[in-house]
Amino acid sequence: MESTRSKIILVDDMKANLTMGKDLLRTFYEVYLASSAPKLFEILENIVPDLILLDIVMPEVDGYEVIKRLKSNPRFMDIPVIFLTSKDDDASEMEGFDLGAVDYVTKPFSGPLLLKRIANQLLIVRQKNELLASQAVLRNHANSLEVKVREKSEEVSDLQNAVLATVAELVEFRDRQTGGHIARTQRYLQALIDGMLREGVYKGEVSNWEMDYFLPSAQLHDVGKIAVSDRILNKTEALAEHEFEHIKSHTEFGLKIIDKIRENVENESLLHHATALAGSHHERYDGSGYPHGLKAKGIPLQGRIMAIVDVYEALVNDRPHRGKKTHAEAVEYIKSESGSHFDPELVEIFLENEKEFAKEALL
Length: 363
What we know:
Layout: E1 7-11, H1 15-25, E2 30-34, H2 37-44, E3 51-54, H3 63-71, E4 81-85, H4 90-98, E5 103-106, H5 111-141, H6 146-174, H7 181-199, H8 203-206, H9 211-217, H10 230-233, H11 241-248, H12 250-262, H13 268-280, H14 301-315, H15 327-336, H16 344-352, H17 354-361
Parallel strand pairs: 1-2, 1-3, 3-4, 4-5
Helix pairs in contact: 5-6, 7-14, 7-16, 7-17, 9-13, 12-13, 13-14, 14-15
């Protein structure tokens, strides 16, 4: 009987690394070992793996050249590649992500952490394939099977949400300082939106939003953190200026990731909100934010809303360099930043509904 276990190719020019990697992976996966790029492509003549673990520094052909060849071949371009390397500088990580790697793990690595990252990537691929299959079914039957189309539309929506949740969980798994951040921000967003609708603030714009898409899309607001180095993301000491600049790049990288998702997901409403949230939640009302220095109403409304939610959530939870603040202290800070960091109209709504935030913070 053919094995149903996922196939993984481990590529490394060091025999000790191949042995250690095989010992770690063989309990869960069907593992193939390649000591060089030519050996990898020999294996690929006979099998198409579910994932490739790829070293960067190798003789003859390095990992960067290997991934370029993989991504240029329609047969291999969709295979997720995780770089597994001793190179830990920011430029190397960014180059790897720009070339199409899905993750970047530095050596020496934690065995359980590597297994978790592999499992998450395989789950994303599986759900993506299910999503594409469901969309194909919808296209084929849309004209004649209206009832089934409605049922499948709900299924596609569920799958899209599952993909988003998986991606968001992957980000949270890497950022040990912000566990539960995404779930809490969704609850705070709901509370703030409900208050806006009750008071009629920006009601004309918000009432046109499809909330079934807006709230799930919020899961992607920090997706760009997947490109932030582990050692910076979880650093407990004060960040150097260049490290903070690296952290700030997560907004622009998040936009790149959402554009990549857009190639395979047809729901523009969902991705419209995700783009606005990921790209503008660190802009400031007075124009001093990033990445584009947008000002006042020039900042998408989604970003202005998320700015309040994101800051409140950060203040009332432990973060590196400081302990958490009380709810009252967080409320006072947001009030003090009205007109500078935050939209004054939204601050008023927040102040009117701050008890809801306090209640949600306890969940």
